[in-house]
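In this supplementary section we document a worked example of the pipeline. Step one takes a protein sequence of length 135 as its only input; no multiple sequence alignment statistics are reported here. Step two produces a three-dimensional model, which step three serialises into structure tokens for compact storage. The input and output of this example are shown verbatim.
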Amino acid sequence: MLQQILGGSFEVARTALSGLSRRQSAISANVANIDTPGYHRKAVDFEDALKESLAITPASMQTSDPRHFTKVGARDVGVGSSGEVRDVISERNDGNDVSIDEEMLLLVDTQLRYQALSQATGTRIGTLRTIIRGG
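The serialised model returned by step three reads:
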């Protein structure tokens, strides 16, 4: 019953926050190694796996009336299927391919996404608390 109330939104948020956290760690490692000869930047790509987790086939949807809205949920996303670390190759003369400008842009983007998702999840929890209290 709890899963019906929550609709999988917390699992999706958990997966996305985990992916963003892993991306933040990769960016930190890239910045720390900006002057290390031969270092190849790391990037965490989890959005495709997250999008796939949100895909629902029409057969999985059931409504008691065809006029009802379709429901949205998430399939389970395994740890191995999302957040894979990949190498990106575009080297400088010393073999290092880290660009501080690109890393700082990614850092800001990741922080903003994490903050927005955290706030949205907190708001959802607050709404559920209000509903449970009968307010």
